[in-house]
Specification:
about 35% helix; three-stranded antiparallel β-sheet; 10 strands; alpha+beta; five-stranded antiparallel β-sheet; about 350 residues
Length: about 350
């Protein structure tokens, strides 16, 4: 089955991101017919059509400032192979919900040079195959930062999140980009509102990553959203080695978070199958990332205009403000740095 590679370049400040979309051609006749581009949203709806599943219940991307960004950043895992257990929502609410999900998972530990990596069984088996192939080829595949390179608890993700957010806040307060009152403002907010506020600051160039040049979401996931909580993520020391990446790709492990090249996600498919599952290939900084090919952002003001009910002035103002915020903190609307 031949494939055609299409390239589209999106120009952004100081960088360019090359997006490669693989369009599979159907060869059932002499004149092959191209298949329609598959959007991530549509694929998930089709995949879950036999259940009571609803996309907005799973991840309210049309109304939540956070859900859209979380799905853009980490959503690729939701098209993983059927042998993988996946979280019921794109944002798990608190430690109890994460524990309830993790208690249902069949897991298998993988020992790498004395470091115990906890993963879902299918992911562990695929990683072990990768390790065996790497050893045969004289290569190493090592966990980055020890055991937390694999599965994590909710507490792990909260600790890592705080280790990014608070130093970044101090950094920007000292430089006068944030007021001293920012600490108290954040402290009063619940976690979803904290993240919304941070992403709003980042849309103004006040970044919370470890190097202060990128979104905090490229450094760590907010508690309740990490692929590590699903036990199908693994951070690799040797991510720069293209042969190592090839071995992992061959066994269903792919880079899925732009600007986090050490992070691999177990999807369980061949690379050529990923576009038909709603994923888009993005090449950046020498790495190929597979990210959700989401439908365009909704225009809330247009939705009001098309409504049969006449919107009030307050509704129009609220819709415009919300639409503007959603676009400002959208992953693809923000500047990306090499």
């Amino acid at each position: 089955m031949p494939t055609v590679e299409l390239m589209m370049t999106h120009q952004r400040p100081k960088t360019s991101v090359v997006i490669l979309m693989l369009v599979v051609l159907c060869c059932c006749s002499v004149n092959a017919q191209p298949l329609q581009v598959v959007y991530f949203d549509q694929y998930l709806e089709k995949k879950n059509s036999s259940s009571a599943w609803a996309f907005e219940k799973f991840c309210p991307v049309s109304t939540s400032l956070i859900a859209r960004r979380v799905l853009e950043s980490y959503g690729s895992m939701f098209v993983a192979h059927e042998s993988v257990n996946l979280p019921p929502t794109c944002v798990q609410k608190g430690e109890s919900q994460v524990n309830a999900f993790q208690n249902k998972i069949s897991r298998t530990p993988v020992d790498i040079d004395g470091v115990r990596i906890e993963l879902q069984s299918p992911a562990a088996q695929a990683l072990q195959r990768s390790l065996d192939e790497a050893t045969t080829a004289g290569l190493r595949i090592s966990p980055l930062d020890g055991a937390i390179a694999g599965g994590r608890s909710y507490g792990d993700t909260l600790m890592i999140w705080n280790s990014r957010v608070f130093p970044a806040m101090d950094f920007w307060i000292k430089r006068g980009r944030l007021p001293e009152t920012a600490r108290d403002e954040i402290a009063r907010l619940e976690l979803p509102q904290k993240l919304e506020k941070i992403l709003e600051w980042e849309s103004q160039g006040i970044y919370f990553s470890t190097d202060r040049t990128r979104s905090v979401l490229t450094s760590t996931a907010p508690p309740g959203t990490s692929q590590h909580l699903a036990l199908i993520a693994f951070d690799v020391v040797e991510f720069r080695n293209p042969t190592v990446r090839g071995v992992l790709n061959k066994n269903g492990w792919f880079q899925t978070i732009v600007d986090d090249p050490a992070h691999f996600t177990y999807l369980g498919f061949r690379e050529t199958e990923l576009p038909s599952r709603g994923l888009l290939a993005v090449f950046k900084g020498g790495h190929l990332y597979w990210i959700p090919n989401l439908l365009p952002l909704p225009n809330l003001t247009e939705a009001l205009d098309s409504s049969t009910d006449t919107p009030t002035a307050d509704e129009i103002t609220t819709a415009k403000t919300r639409s503007s915020k959603m676009r400002a903190i959208s992953l693809h609307a923000a500047p990306l740095n090499q």
